[in-house]
Amino acid sequence: MNYAIDLSLKPTTFDLWHVCLAGTVVVLALILLVVLLRIVFAMLRCKKNRNQTHAVSAEPTVKIVEKIVEVEKIVEVEKLVPAPIPEPVILKESTPDAALQLLGLLQKDARFIDFIQEDIANFSDADVGVAARVVHEGCKKAVHEHFTLSPIRTELEGNQVTLPAGFDAASVRLTGNIVGSAPFKGTLVHKGWQVTDVRLAKLTQAHNASIVAPAEVEL
Fold first, then answer.
1. Which residue of 155, 157, 170, 188 has the fewest C-beta atoms within 10 A of its own C-beta?
2. How many helices (DSSP H) and strands (DSSP E) are in the chain?
3. Ranges of each domain in the chain
């Protein structure tokens, strides 16, 4: 017995079986749609996280490269700019001729060397005073004849003076309780002296300046 099925026929009845079949199809379609949407969202989220990770990992690299470049620039600047060389301290070479010449003048005018070489322990104070007066007058004459002296400070000794910041430490010497920094206020103990002019005679090349007092022979 042969059965022929005509597929072109349309159902004329809509029973419970057809309802279940249609509902199943709709549910499967919704599930498929939800799964596809979740897959798409998951792919988008992974791509976003990958971009953020790449950006975070790339930023420190850029900073490190920038720091390396800055360090190289600093090193290059240090190489190009040499360190300042301290100026050498130049010491003045002084010849003893001027000092020997002055010593000879003091001996000539005041018998200075004779006085300091003499043993005055056995002399009385009166005798020492007389000799000191002669030496004083002769030394004063020799100094005033060959040097011009002027006081460093013009104030009277014993007066109060103020030394500002940056004062010349070579011309003013601080004594006593030195605390803090300038300006300093104190009492002028000594006005100081400075030579403003020197009038020593020029020596010939054959002159022996080390002979400050030649021996004397009376005939």
1. 170
2. 4, 4
3. 28-79, 106-146, 148-163+184-198
